[in-house]
Write a structure and sequence with these properties.
seven-stranded mixed β-sheet, globular
Amino acid sequence: MKIPSRIFSFPRFLKILQSLHLPTRPAGGNVKQVRSKTSDPAARARHTDAVELFGKFYPCDDHTNVTPKILSKVGKSLQNQRNHPLWLLKERIKDHFYTSYLSRHRNPLFSVYDNLSPVVTTEQNFDSLLIPPDHASRRKGDNFYLNQSHMLRAHTSAHQRDLIRAGLNAFLVFGDVYRRDEIDKSHYPVFHQLEGVRLFTKYELFANVQHGEELHLFEKGYRTSCKQESHTLEAVKLLEFDLKQTLNKVVTHLFGKGLDTRWVECYFPFTHPSFEMEIKFQGEWLEVLGCGIMEQQLVNSAGAQDRVGYAFGLGLERLAMILYGIPDIRLFWSEDERFYRQFQVTHIDQKVTFQPFSKYPPLVNDISFWIPHEGYEENDFYDLVRNIGGDLVEKVALIDRFSHPKTGKMSHCYRITYRHTERTLTQEEVNATHRDIERSSVEKLGVEGRF
């Protein structure tokens, strides 16, 4: 009997999964949550010529831009810390998928991975997802590179191709991701995502369709705004319906009925058509997930040429902020017992509404400087502020741009809001931090201070 190409022997399956840096199961039974042999991977992480993470050394080059502050977050795995709000959210989503989607043998249809290494190759993070070499998302200003070939993943989508190649047709990946970004209450350079993928054969997709045996997944057609050139319209419409229904059910499971949501068409290099779901939060529409029909070229490259599928990615912090009423994304990294105690529940579905410890007053300082004609990136400045001010900084806002009429030089003025989540700051300590930021901006970014 011919063995289907998607079925692998158990030893080969294990070998593929081991290449993904999955934790191994101890012989004794229960799975241990393996973080790293070094509890703080960044303790010895940065050398003059290499970055060390999880016992491996990555030689530095002109792409290396990861900072000690970011390295100190690697390996924390907040999604696996019991009674952390991200852990609660993960467990609720897992429970929903485990009970709602079952195979013919009544086993969970979706497999779950929550401890894959955040260190990936640039090929995994970009090329495997069909992201063009000149795409803006590859910029150093937006990512944390260990070197030219390795980086901290910018999305959990970096594992899509490898897991499909390992023979999986339905899976969820929870993990920490890293992006250089602006500074405010809803943005942080380390956050957590859920990635979901589901693939269908012709028989699975059309099983409940009248005369489904006469329908097809593929055709030699044209790409339109509604479909890819190789997909039939009926296949795409069924996939889109199943995808949106699946995600609507997740959101209803988490928030209950009556939540104000909407779907918005968008663009991703690795799905077409693509969509975003937005939730109305505090009077504004907040994007919480992106999804779409997987590009067939990506599916084919993973060895699943006879299948079509969809993928989705959810931002866990944004969902948790809405679900539990957490006002500031920095609180997810708090080690204050007053934070953790609020999430020590007897059941994962127990309702929790976060109660702020206190409202500590903000302290505001401005900084202005002339920027160089070339090479200045706003995210470089935000990253510098993060590295020096850490979680003392609540927000950084560009409040003024000025172009000198004679010299053509450009000046930026930023307002930095300092506020600790657990105590009152003094003007003296804020001024000391602010002076360090001024000095480092001149030394590292090549700006000319107007202090």
